[in-house]
Amino acid sequence: MPSIKEQLWDPVAGFGVTFRTMFKRVVTETYPYDRKPTAPRFHGRHQLNRWPDGLEKCIGCELCAWACPADAIYVEGADNTDGGRYSPGERYGRVYQINYLRCILCGLCIEACPTRALTMTNEYELADDNRADLIYEKSDLLAPLLPGMEQPPHPMRLGDREVDYYRGAGRGRRRGPEEGANEGATQ
Fold first, then answer.
1. For residue 169, what pLDDT is reported?
2. Rounded to the nearest 5°, which phi and psi values hold at 142?
3. What's the pLDDT at 114?
4. Per residue in 160-175, is it b (16+ CB within 10 Å) or e — as a string?
5. E strand spans, 68-124
6. Mind listing the pLDDT tens digit for each residue in 114-135?
7. Residue 19 CA, distance from chain mean position
């Protein structure tokens, strides 16, 4: 049998937090007007990066799709041709889709990428009222062309072989890590 204290005092004590905060001034964030900056390593929207000459870093290996626990990434690779290349490797990602209805923004896909083609930006506004608009295609994910970049397909400009790209040797001169091999790479 509960005591009188338990019957009378415990329900009032349970509402203690409610009573203490009921008359305080409400503090709300003015989100749409004042956006707070995110942390530098925040995991937001994905981005497919490019090499300094404009070729795509994605080689269509599909490792990001295999690593995704939510099965939100779909990659379909295709072979490059010598006349028109999309990436310096043998293959490129012909179809690249990320379904943000399924993505949990965990970052396992960027850890699996061998060429650092996929990174995550600080963009976090991914809400939409149309489900089809939350499936991002390759054109939505590709980094924009910077000055000096050329829209693929085109021949390799930073070296004669794909290994020149991955080692950072540009225009026939091979540079080691101590000389800034990744200098100027878009990330």
1. 59
2. -65, 140
3. 93
4. eebebbbbbbbeeeee
5. 73-79, 91-99, 118-120
6. 999 999 999 999 999 999 999 9
7. 44
Position 7: which residue type? Q
Tokens representing residue 52 in the block: 């300094």
Q: What is the overall mean pLDDT for the chain?
A: 84
pLDDT tens, residue by residue, 84-116: 889 988 899 999 999 999 999 999 999 999 999
CA–CA gap between residue 74 and residue 95 (Å, rounded): 8
Closest CA to 62 of 76, 51, 72: 76
- Say whether the peptide bond before residue 153 is cis (omega within 30 degrees of 0): yes
Residue 11 has pLDDT above 50, yes or no: yes
Cβ(85)–Cβ(54) under 8 Å?
no
Dist CA 47 CA 144 (whole Å): 10
* CATH code reported for the domain at 54-167: 3.30.70.3270
Among 33, 155, 142, 149, residue whose Cα is nearest residue 88: 155
Give me the helices (H) in the chain, please. Answer: 4-14, 16-21, 63-67, 108-112, 138-141, 162-167
| CA-wise closest residue to 88 among 52, 55, 48, 118 | 55
- pTM for the model stands at 0.72
